Amino acid sequence: MVTILDVARAAGVSKSTVSRVLDERLPRSTNATAERVREVAAELGYVRDPLASGLRRSGTSTVGVIVPRLTDTVMAMLYEAITEAAAGRDLFTVVATTEDLPEAQDKAVESLRRRRVDGLILTTARVGEPVDVGGPPYALALRTDGAGPAAIGDDRLGAQLATRHLIDLGHRRIGLVGGPEYASSARGRAEGYREALASGGIGFDPAMVAGDAFSIEAGEIAGRALLDRPDRPSAVFAVNDNTAIGVLAAAHALGLEVPRDVSIVGYNDIPVVSRLPVPLTTVRVPFRQIAADALSLVLDDGAARGETAVSAPTLIPRASTAPPG
Fold first, then answer.
1. Locate the HTH lacI-type domain: which residues (predicted)?
2. Which three-class secondary structure state does DSSP give residue 124?
3. Is there a common fold for 4-54 and 155-285?
4. Element holding 98 (H helix, E strand)
5. What does the alpha-carbon distance between residue 126 and residue 144 come to, in Å, rounded to a whole number?
6. Residue 100: phi, psi to the nearest 5?
7. Which of 61, 191, 194, 305 shows the smallest number of beta carbons within 10 Å?
């Protein structure tokens, strides 16, 4: 492997000169010595070692990402988006999973700190439980604790878009399949649902709400609770696509046809939902923008200022929604 010392010897300059000339973070020099150094480096096939240069800065050119689980398509999509954004800055990402358990998050943070990551992005925040990473700059993504720097989607707006879509179609009994109370995303979407009902002149009915997790299984259980009753809703808004898929399964098991008997809206727009037998109406989250914002918070001092970047979602109407009856 060609080193900076090899380039320095071949170019007849000091090692520090080569380091300054080839450091992409510094303004590009165009004098004869600099051009000679670049020419020799190219001839020798020198490739910058980001790990070695990172260690000299007491870092590793690595960003740690902590997610509940990678079997969750949303988390996998966000991690890929963060990796893509990091690559554009000549950085590498490493991921740790926690099963959404606070004690596992603490262990993941400590493990990544020992690996000297230059920053952390966490998608595991809980409302009212401030995150403490104990050192490196960090940002929260998708979910916030209400205190730390965060890059999130506008969950209230997305839920309002979904619920208003159903109201515009003529639905008046609209159920909600919610998520865990500790997740700011689930809370924001529940708030947006209630706000949209109120703006449409529809009273909030607690009996039209079920569910407390983001999984397909939880969605199916909640879907049965809402749909297996005489006064079932004519439409259901589920706070993520996994739970919406569960509601679809519940509707099928109960002999209900979507959207003739019940309309269903999800949230996130994971790839599979556009390929279902009944393509799912959903709310698209701008994962790439959220990933780029989270990385910027970590690397560009936004974390130190406690900033929050909010990205707007988009309603994607498909075949799972229609006028009632």
1. 2-57
2. coil
3. no
4. none
5. 7
6. 65, 30
7. 305
